[in-house]
Amino acid sequence: MIRINLLPHREEKRRLRQKQFAAFAGITIAFGLMAAFLVWFFLDQQVQQQQTNVNYMKTEISKLDKQIEEIRKIREETASLLAKKQVVEGLQSNRSEPVQLLDQLLRQLPEGVYLKSVKQTGTKVGVTGYAQSNARVSTLMRNLGASPYLENPELVEIKAVPAPANPNARVNEFLMNISIKRAKADDGKVAPKPAAGAK
Fold first, then answer.
1. Which residue positions does the secretion signal occupy (predicted)?
2. CA-based R_g, the chain, Å
């Protein structure tokens, strides 16, 4: 009987299989590394792109913040200019007011009444004076109430005092409040001017 030794053949086959396995494992590792590199590269590109986007957004937000700050300053300046404009318009519209007030007081002043002081605060005017009698103070109040420029005469106080020019004589010292009629800003009407011959 012939005996055949198969060990070298089996050993050769085992070595071949080991080589194939090593080659397959190497290829698999290479593909795995390549795939890992590609995934890492892709993710890195995505991160860089996101970072670029974030930096761009920060730059744009900074620009918008500056624009908002400029708009806020412009609005503040506009509001300040409008306030100044309204003050100037108010001064222009009321610049003849003291002249008209004194003119009306003189026109409506009855005989026997003398003014001591006139003080204006806004549209309110305080008038202090002397009258020979209470009736003359009443006449003054009626005249002021009928004035096209003045309104709401209100007697605050009246009392008998020695006359400034003659301490032996007695006169009535009075304190009166009146209001000035002003044009309304919303209806565009102008306060009526006193007639040339008004008394």
1. none
2. 51
pLDDT in tens, 56-114: 999 999 999 999 999 999 999 999 999 988 888 776 666 667 777 777 788 878 888 88
pLDDT in tens, 30-53: 999 999 999 999 999 999 999 999
Distance between CA atoms of 6 and 159, rounded to whole angstroms?
151
Classified by CATH at the fold level, domain 109-180 comes out as Gyrase A; domain 2 (3.30.1360)
Closest-CA residue to 199 (of 135, 144, 123, 132): 144
pTM, rounded to two decimals: 0.44
Task: Give the integer Cα–Cα distance in Å for 33 and 99.
Answer: 99
CA–CA dist 13, 124 (Å, integer):
123
